[in-house]
Amino acid sequence: MSIGLIILTAAAGVFVWGVSMYNNFVKLMQRAKEAWADIDVQLKRRYDLIPNLVETVKGYAGHERETFEAVVNARANATKVHVDPSNITPEQIQAMAGAEASLSGALGKLMAIAEAYPDLKANTNFAQLQNELTDTENKIQAARRFYNTNVRDLLIALQSFPSNIIGSMFNFAPMDYFELDEGSEEREPVKVDFGAETSA
User: Fold this and answer.
1) What angle (nearest 5°) sits at the alpha carbon of residue 115, between those of residues 109 and 119?
2) Is 192 contained in some domain?
3) pLDDT tens digit string along 115-147?
4) Number of structural domains, the chain?
5) Which residues contact 109 (CB under 8 A, 6 or more apart)?
6) How far apart are CA 39 and CA 108, in angstroms?
7) Which of 4, 18, 70, 86 is deepest in the core (most CB within 10 A)?
8) 26-74 residue pLDDT tens
9) Range of the domain at 136
């Protein structure tokens, strides 16, 4: 085999590898963006449930005005945060995480109030809203895990040799995880548990 043919074969192999790596980065970026879109859908579903939930609780605990206002304000702030799936930035992710943590904290306080009203817990409308909220919270967590998994795969590819060469050449940028600080009381997941009270 001539040296020219060896060089040509090697060059073709490098080209095919480069195209494969480039396409892999495109796939990883699109998967992460698609995963973010799923988070966005679930967050919007959550936002849609909140006004009905607040109104239902208000009917039984109208004097808890400060808590209702906190939930309404936290929801309004969260809906103002926009994350562009085609160009997700670390700042957008941080803003969304902060807004969602505040909303979760406010919702947690609303749910704690509801515990003090047995008639509210027995209300069919409230029970349905509670079930929908619980389901939505679970879907948000699942969507967040899926997004973070895709971000992790992208980061591994960007940091691993030799794929990092192609990533750097074509300016594929890392994406940030969507995480809430575990240490903050406000950032604890919403605990929604309105099962029947056990007798002492």
Assistant:
1) 130
2) no
3) 888 888 788 888 899 899 999 999 999 999 999
4) 1
5) 67, 70, 71
6) 20
7) 70
8) 999 999 999 999 999 999 999 999 999 999 888 888 788 888 899 999 9
9) 24-187
